[in-house]
Amino acid sequence: MSSPTHTDRAARAQTAIPGIIGGLGPLAHIALERRLIAESARRGATGDGGHPVWILINAADVPDRTASLADGSDGCARSLVRYGRVLEAAGADFLIVACNTAHAFHRRVQAELSIPWLHLIDHTAAAIARRHPGIERVGVLATDGTLRAALYQRSLLDLGIATIAPGAGTALQTEIMDAIYAPGWGIKASGVEIGARAQAAVWRAVHWLEQHGAELVIAGCTELSAALETLTVSTTLPLPWLDPLEVAAQLTLDLAYGAAGVVVAPGRAPLRKASR
């Protein structure tokens, strides 16, 4: 049995520490961390020391983001500011929030933090344009809150890409929301497993997007990232899909190790480099 070495850490000096607000929902940060570890291994990590240090807070008591947008309440933004400051104080140099809908509060929250919050929606849109040049129509599966806030619609439209999504209140969007939220069988309620009923609902939604002209699907909710990952293992989806959590993992590692030319988002707070 070989003894552990510090080769990984010596080869890649970490220059910034990510802070992750997780718990939005229960699987969100777990899905992100799995992608971080997988991407780190793909980049050459072979032991403990080859993976970056990050700080995680399981902020399960943040009010529901879609409900907060619907009723105009301030609790969600205030909670995100509070936990962002906790991560700042703990030594995080930049922030990742493992929830798509939470980005509706990005501007308000970022204004009250001294470290930058990685804008997952903007970077996902940029990744689509970069990886799929010439793409014209992207399907978005997301919560009512993400769709009503037009988060992906705006970011993609800025890049000349149209979006296709079920309308709010339609039978299909209701089924997607049930797949995420339904007590007993929804993804938030099912622990670490994605049940067959939720998987079937997500598959039907992808099929609908394909029928309506989408060329690619965004998993615009962390629960849907988990569901689509499960479906990819067990069946063939009608369309390829892009996982914002994968984009987040790649950018997080780039920032953590000081890759040249990488920014959190244009026009936002600069990344404060750690002196470690």
Question: What sequence of helices (H) and strands (E) makes up the elements?
Answer: HEHEHHEHHEHHEHHEHEH
Biggest beta sheet summary: 4 strands, parallel
* Proportion of residues in β-strands: 5-15%
Number of strands: 7
Give the N-terminus to C-terminus distance in angstroms. Answer: 32 Å
Number of helices: 12
Q: Specify the overall morphology.
A: globular
Low-confidence stretches: 1-7, 266-270
Helix percentage:
40-55%
User: How would you classify the helix and strand content by structural class?
Assistant: alpha/beta
Strand order of the largest sheet: 5-4-6-7
Q: Report Rg.
A: 18 Å
- What is the average of the pLDDT values? 90
Overview of this structure, please?
The protein is an alpha/beta fold and 276 residues long. It is 45% helix and 11% strand. The protein contains 12 helices and 7 strands. It has helices at residues 7-11, 28-42, 65-71, 75-90, 106-110, 120-131, 144-148, 151-157, 171-181, 196-211, 222-234, 244-256, and strands at residues 18-22, 55-58, 94-97, 137-142, 162-164, 216-220, 241-242. The strands form 2 sheets. Strands 5-4-6-7 form a 4-stranded parallel sheet. α2 (28-42) crosses α12 (244-256) and α10 packs across α11 (222-234). It is globular and about 45 Å long. The model is unreliable at 1-7 and 266-270 (pLDDT under 50).
